[in-house]
Amino acid sequence: MQWFLAVVKQYAVFSGRARRKEYWMYTLFWAIGYIVLGVVDQILGTHQKNTFGGLLAGLFSLALLLPSIGVAIRRMHDTGRSGWWILINLVPCVGWIWFIVLAAGDGNPGDNQYGPDPKAAERGFGGPAGPAEPGYPTA
Q1: Using CA atoms, how far apart are residues 27 and 120, in angstroms rounded to an integer?
Q2: Which of 23, 39, 65, 123 has the smallest number of Cβ neighbours within 10 A?
Q3: Which pTM does this prediction carry?
């Protein structure tokens, strides 16, 4: 949960780098929240016909749109790619698969043009013992 909250606290930060763990933990908790709210929508009758989500799940997704884009861009930065690579999701049928492959890849060890390595201490490159930016969880 701390990874999810760290991303939400950086609501519209599109610079820097995000570790693989940060991105996937955020995505996991986002999916759990969406599913729970989708079930609540079903119970309350606020769901859309022929869809899973409804009013509450839609508001949840809308509220977390900017943090989701921000962490995806920072994840691409960690792999040494421009944040514009998130637009690969717009390619029909295969775009989201390609993005998952890119997001699942290892980050570049050491600093890159997008900032310091968030795992520098773990990789033995020195640097801070914790994450590169304030507010990041350390474990």
Answers
A1: 23
A2: 65
A3: 0.79
Q: How far is CA 29 from CA 3, 14, 115, in A?
A: 9, 20, 26
Q: Which residues pair with 75 in a beta bridge?
A: none
CA 68, CA 75: separation in Å to the nearest integer? 11
Name which of 116, 86, 84 is nearest 19 in CA terms. 116
CB-based contact 12:73 (threshold 8 Å): no
- CA–CA gap between residue 15 and residue 66 (Å, rounded): 13
Query: Rounded to whole angstroms, how far apart are CA atoms 110 and 119?
Result: 8
Task: Quote the pLDDT of residue 123.
Answer: 57
Identify whether the C-beta of residue 116 lies closer than 8 Å to the C-beta of residue 134. Answer: no
- 8 A C-beta contact, residue 26 and residue 11: no
